C-alpha cells in the first residue's frame, strides 16, 4: 500500500478520536496545556501499541509465503475490517449519544483511559488489516502517532470553541474514508 492509502485509513480511524476529544473539549472552562500534553501522550502511545499488536497478530496468522488464494483471503479480511469500522462510525453518527454537559475545570487524565481503550480495539483491528496487506510497519507507526496527536489537539480546541456539534460530521467523514480504503483494497489487491 502506498502512503496515501495508509493516510486515508489512519485519518478514518483517527476521526473517532477527534469526535471524542471534541466532546471533552466542549466541557472544559480552560484548556490546560499540561493536561492536553498528557492526554496526547496517553492516547498516542495507546494507539501505537494497539496498531503494533494488531500487526504482530496478523503476522502470526498470515505468513508471507502463502499461496495466491490465501493472500486473496487476507486482502478480503482487510477490506471487511475497513467496511465494518466504517459501519460502526455511521452507527455512532446515527445514534448521536448525548454528552452530559457539565463544566470541568480541566481535561484531566483519568477520563481518557476508557476512551483510549475503546478506540484501541478498532486500531488493533486496523493493525491486523495492515498486517494482512503487508504494509511497512515503521511508516504506519510514525503516521499514527503524528495523526493521533494532531486529532487530539484539533478535537479539543474545536470542542472548546464550537461545542460538540461537529462530532457527527467526524464520524461520517471517518466512515467514508474507511469505505474508500476498503474499496481500494478490493479493487487493487483482491482483484489482482
From TrEMBL:
Keywords assigned by UniProt, alphabetized: Cell membrane, Membrane, Transmembrane, Transmembrane helix
The transmembrane segments are: none
Q: Which organism is it from?
A: Roseburia inulinivorans DSM 16841
Is-annotated flag, keyword Transmembrane? yes
Write down a Pfam family by its short name: Mntp
Highest taxon of source: Bacteria
Q: What is this protein called?
A: Sporulation protein YtaF
Per the record's keyword annotation, is Cell membrane included, yes or no? yes
